[in-house]
Amino acid sequence: MFVLATLLYPCVLALLCAGAGLLIDRAGGSFLPGALLPVVGAAALIGLSQLTTYSVFAAPATPYLLALLALAGFALGRRRLAAMLAGGWRRSGWQLAVPVIAYVAALAPILFAGRPSFSSYGVLTDSAFHMLGADFLIRHGQDYSHLDLRNSPGQYLNDYYNTSYPSGADTFFGGSAFLVHVPLIWAFQPYNAFMLALVTGPAWVLVRRIGLDGWLAALATLTVTLPALVYGYELIASVKEITALPMILALGALVVLHQRWLRGPPFGAAAFALVAAAGVSALGVSFGAWVLTAVVVLTAIGVRDIVVEDVGPGESASKDMEAGVPASDRLSVRGPLLLLVVGLLVAFVAALGTWFDVSGSLQVAKNIASTSNPGNLQNPLRTVQILGTWLVSSYKHVPAGGDLTVSYALSLLALAAAGLGAAYVVYRREYALAAWIALTLTVWLGLTAYGTTWADGKALMLTSPVVVLLAWGGVAALRDWGRVRPASSRPRSGSDPGRAARSAPRLASRWAAALLALMLVGGVAASDALQYHGSNLAPTARYEELASIDSRFAGRGPALFVDYDEYSLYELRDLDVGGPGFMYPPPAIAQTEGRPANLDLISPAALRSYPLIVTRRDPASSRPPAAYRLLYQGAYYEIWGRLPGAPTALVHVAPVSATTAASASGTAGTAGGAPIQCSTVAGLAQLAKAHGAQLLSTRPPQIVPIDVAGTLHPDWTESRDGLLMSGPGRLEATFAVPHTGTWELWLQGEIMPAVGVSVDGRPLASIGGQLNGVASDPDTTAPLRVRLAAGLHRVRIARGSSNPLGPGSGGSAILDSIFLTPAGAGGQAMLQVTPVARWRSLCRQRLEWIEIVPGG
After folding, report:
1. How far is CA 23 from CA 65, 86, 175, 263, 634, in A?
2. 838 and 806 in one domain?
3. What integer best gives the mean pLDDT of the chain?
4. What's 783's domain CATH number?
5. ω into residue 558 within 30 of 0, thus cis?
6. Distance (Å, whole) CA 448 – CA 289
7. Largest interatomic CA distance in the chain
8. What are the backbone dihedrals phi and psi of residue 559, each rounded to the nearest 5 degrees, phi first?
9. Do 321 and 287 reside in the same domain of the chain?
């Protein structure tokens, strides 16, 4: 699966985009440079996927229609493809290498982990909705009439996608992943990395336009593609913005290449229109702000070409005029009108769903721009982050100490370089590029002025590559100034007394350009490396177990999902899961958002509609009510099924102390139960007798706790969430087991970097990548079996030196609790039936809960 998701899938994406790009290029008169073919092809595929998923009947055919479009492009564009291949890899070596390098850098945490996953797990759970939405849209299209709004998936899909939420990224993602038969949960990060790598195409065109070439152009392109803020947004898979970013830069590239298509056939406008429509489909109508910047520049160019009819090569204010384009070849009124008609028609068809409900799309954009919810941003991002360098493990945080000083110093240098670059772009008479950059920065300033924290962060990220491009313009300016005069301009004979004086500043300028380039590359690379180092990867084995559960119990829902994990919406999509702690919980059993459910606080009548309950395998948590029996037990989850015809309990009561603690903290379990008062049992017995019912109760398993706070841990510190294993160190503790036998050792916490676990000097396992996504809701690891004799033993947990190249080695490392239980302690054996006449036997017992069940 790892090879399929990370290597084969992006290759298929590349072929799809290249084929579709060749088709659009052929239709438009073969004017696109090779660097723009993939991004234009991606835009065409997004448009096609939007069209097919608009219909419930065509939606399942989306993957095959994407492939058909690409095949048509390869067939019709084979001559163009052959011509590009004939140019040889030597001629285009850097241009071909840059997107591959960008993809590897963007997907580095997963690639170097060697397992399918997605990065920055738990930072932004919106990706769970996109996985669910992509799967739904490819299977059912824009048909929401059959959704079950009583459970979580139906509410999520209805409140997002049935309210004009932009879905362009999801339909292309879902269609392409379905084509390769790779689970969307493992294809999601490779898709984002691929879309970010597409930025290198238009970035290459723009970098070459400011005067850089060869390896220097390659470095500039990578830096423009991967500034710290963009890299951070890719790591959290902010799919809408990452899909829109290559479209923004492609608009700029098409603006500077206007002389290739504004005078060509009318269908030459299709590339621009498709890119604009793809951006709107992915990001919403707010993308129109960036489209408007390009349209304004192109309109000015078109008006100039119509009005000015007899301008000589040296009098024009644009690069194409300097090249001496005859007046007869410049635009007439008829040409722009045809281009406009074709462009509008293509843009309308490619984003049909958006235009058919433009009022809803506008409302979504307004809600996003005005929301007071900062999302995963506790504080607004700093404007200085737009310059590409931010030396901290997450773009959400502020560097400390010297890192902050260095970040500001490198940013100040980049700002000065950007100012020099802006002057140099004008000096080169790249007026179209200069105007596009100026208007793009104006859009950013406008969005920042009227947006809120969440929207401001997105605008800052989308503008960062443009600012970094300007900084590289400063490198080009210094390099151009430092060029040695060609031989033809040197004296033919004799000495040149002023030559040495003139060469010194030129040499200094060349060295300054090299040093500036090194600073720009180093700042971005160091920033990205820190974020790579601090990324948290999703737990692969746990989600693979959820996928197997979905296959095993498909169609037997609805199921109640006790844990707080919104990725279960996709993984258990065939069980119609409801999560009481989700943002959209089942209305009848809603509990604290962002926390696991407490079954003891849900009325027996509300549970009756759920044939299945999915719980984490955690002996410290309370088992489901007596009407449920254990159907499946894996390493991480248990599936409980309601017995056919099982009566609904009249009353379900947990001991007061346990219930109060669970309710206050929002946790799922009662941590071993609590003694139940005789007065409580007496009242229940009286009620049971009146209804001819019986008393059912459950005892907690035998638990041997290990006090983490009381252990020996000289290298680690305690926090509100648990023991911070922030670096190399160890924990040692002595514990006693009451009898000889096989025991299971459990750890709870958020453990991304690997830690070794041993008992009495015997290594048991190396545990890493065990996360639940929320530090206040510790993950329960799979149990470690060990045979122990009665008496004292010693447990040791150790973390070695962090590997600076290891993905996530700087991620979460929190240990919350350690305990042991007898092996095989299951909920099935803990259920006990007590006759009403013997109710006193329950007094002062430690119970998880007691029920009154009809049928006694």
Report:
1. 14, 19, 19, 20, 50
2. no
3. 85
4. 2.60.120.260
5. yes
6. 13
7. 122
8. -120, 140
9. yes
Rounded Cα distance between 558 and 550, Å, is 12
Concatenate the DSSP letters of all residues of 89-133 into one string. Answer: TTTTHHHHHHHHHHHHHHTHHHHHHTS---SSTTT-THHHHHHHH
Residue 334, token pair as written in the block = 């008829």
Can you read off the two tokens belonging to residue 296? Answer: 């304004």
Q: How confident is the model at residue 856 (pLDDT cuts 50, 70, 90)?
A: low
Residue 504: what pLDDT?
66
Give me the half-sphere count of Cα atoms (radius 13 Å) on the Cβ side of residue 822: 13
φ, ψ for residue 74 (rounded to 5)? -65, -35
- More reliable by pLDDT, 328 or 810: 810
Residues 6+ apart with CB under 8 A from 706: 733, 735, 795, 817, 818, 819, 820
Question: Per the domain annotation, does 183 fall within a domain?
Answer: yes
Give yes or no for residue 332 having a pLDDT over 70.
no
Query: Picking from 60-64, 496-500, 618-622, 705-709, which range would have the lowest pLDDT averaged per residue?
Result: 496-500
Specify whether the CB–CB gap between 194 and 579 falls below 8 A: no
The reported pLDDT for the residue numbered 760 is 92
The residue whose two tokens read 């080695």 is 809
What local confidence, expressed as pLDDT, does residue 497 receive?
56
Residue 819 belongs to domain spanning: 704-825
For the residues 510-537, what does the mean pLDDT come to? Answer: 91
DSSP letter, residue 36: G
Residue 697 is predicted with a pLDDT of 86
Same domain, 133 and 267: yes
Lowest mean pLDDT among 479-483, 491-495, 811-815: 491-495
Taking CA atoms, 628 is separated from 563, 649, 699, 708, 732, in Å, by 17, 11, 15, 34, 39
d(CA 58, CA 353): 14
Q: How does pLDDT run across 255-295, given as a tens digit for each residue?
A: 999 888 888 788 888 999 999 999 999 998 889 999 999 99
CB burial of residue 690 (10 Å; 0-12, 13-18, 19+): exposed
Report how far residue 38's alpha carbon sits from residue 18's, in angstroms, rounded to the nearest whole number: 5
How much is the average pLDDT of 312-322? 44
Q: Which two tokens stand for residue 329?
A: 């070849």
The verdict on residue 525 lying in a domain is: yes
pLDDT score recorded for residue 742: 92
Give yes or no: residues 846 and 813 share one domain: no
Has residue 496 got a pLDDT over 70?
no
Burial of 382 (0-12, 13-18, 19+ CB in 10 A): middle
Q: Which two tokens stand for residue 328?
A: 């007869």
Q: Which two tokens stand for residue 687?
A: 């009620």
DSSP state of 4: I
Query: Once rounded to an integer, what is the mean pLDDT over residues 57-75?
Result: 95
Query: Do 17 and 119 share a domain, yes or no?
Result: yes
Q: Considering its fold, how many domains does the chain have in total?
A: 3
Contact 528, 105 (CB under 8 A): yes
pLDDT at residue number 407: 93
Q: Within this chain, do residues 664 and 788 fall inside the same structural domain, yes or no?
A: no
Residues 26 and 80: beta-carbon distance below 8 Å: yes
Q: What is the mean pLDDT of residues 402-413?
A: 93
Residue for token pair 């208007």: 439
Report whether 575 contacts 550 (CB < 8 A).
Answer: yes
194: phi then psi, degrees, rounded to nearest 5: -65, -45
pLDDT at 352 (0 to 100): 84
Helix, strand, coil share of the chain (percent; to 5): 55, 15, 35
- For residues 7 and 185, is the Cβ–Cβ distance under 8 A? no
Q: What is the Cα 427 distance to its own chain's centre?
A: 40
Q: In the numeric block, which tokens belong to residue 607? A: 């549970």
Task: Give CA–CA dist 744/820, Å, rounded.
Answer: 5
Q: Are residues 120 and 173 in the same domain?
A: yes
pLDDT at 451: 72
Selected residue with higher pLDDT from 735 and 332: 735
247, 271: one domain: yes
- 517-542 average pLDDT score: 92
Does residue 508 lie in a domain region?
A: yes
